Amino acid sequence: MHRADDELANGLGNLVNRTVSLIHRALDGRPPVADSPGPQSEKLSETLAAADARIESALGDYDFRAATEAVRAIVVAANRYVNDIRPWEFEAGHRDLEPVLATLWEACRAIACHLTPFLPDLAGRITDQCTPTPTGRVPLPRPVQRRLGAA
Question: Averaged over 127-145, what is the pLDDT?
Answer without folding.
Answer: 93
